[in-house]
Amino acid sequence: TSNLNYDEIWSVTPGGELVPVLVDTFQTPVAWASWSALQPNPLASNTLTVSHLAIDPRGRIYFVDVNPRNQLFRLTRNGDSWSAQHIAGAPSSNQGTWQDGGTAKRDMDIRDMAVTSDGTPHLQVYSSLDASLHLLEVSSGGIIRERNIPRMYTGLAAGQDGALVVSQTHPTNGGLQLVEVRMDGSHRVIAGGGTLSFSQYATQPATALRLPRETNSSTFIVSFTTGEDGVLYLRLPEANLGIYKVDRSGKVTRYNTDDLD
């Protein structure tokens, strides 16, 4: 959520109660002070600007703060309070850029983030050296390992057993395809890749369908995420506007979203 000129992080209990996690000093002084102490100038009035958010199986919260530069932090619950830990990125370009096999606390242009089922954070990072996106795994010791991914990809979500899901432009049909990237580096198309209209989703597997993208634009607008059981959820644009579920067998089901804007 946003409050005045900075963002806030709240949790929602199963009963629907809002609980502050990283809010202003009047509501969660321990969490705010813990995060502020990691800033380049803790005496200044810091503002939190969150661009990405994820939760690992242990309930720890990961977020990317873009102020003053892209940095990844982790919030861990300690009883009734939370503490922050700096995981990746750097507050200044003076600390050098990231390298495969090096420390994660280096300058990086983080574009997306996901946490796999084993609690390992992964970062989608843009490099101006080759004008492309790279997928970086951050170990528990804070070391970077670059993972093998399809070229020209975008989007990022956690899959099952340490796998990740990314999207890329299909090489021939002009739509999108969603690709599962396994720990061993192998790839598997799990949705898109076909030529059949998505309107046939009720009778065809997800891999046989064409995932639409916004016309007259190169912007990827198919939003996707995954559940703990590896089920894929899609939000599609235009004529197929809606939220769809793709199970592990490839069967597609549409949720009733007629009452949603």
Task: Name some characteristics of this structure.
mainly beta, four-stranded antiparallel β-sheet
Describe the protein.
By secondary structure, the protein is mainly beta. About 5% of the residues lie in helices and about 40% in strands. It has 1 helix and 20 strands. The chain has one helix spanning about 30-35; strands at about 1-5, 5, 10, 20, 50-55, 60-65, 70-80, 80-90, 110-115, 120-125, 130-140, 145, 155-160, 165-170, 175-180, 185-190, 225, 230-235, 240-245, 250-255. Strands 5-6-7-8 form a 4-stranded antiparallel β-sheet, covered by helices on one side. The chain has a 4-stranded antiparallel β-sheet with strand order 9-10-11-12, with no helix packed on it. Strands 13-14-15-16 form a 4-stranded antiparallel β-sheet, with no helix packed on it. The two termini are about 20 Å apart. Mean pLDDT is about 85; it is low at about 215-220.
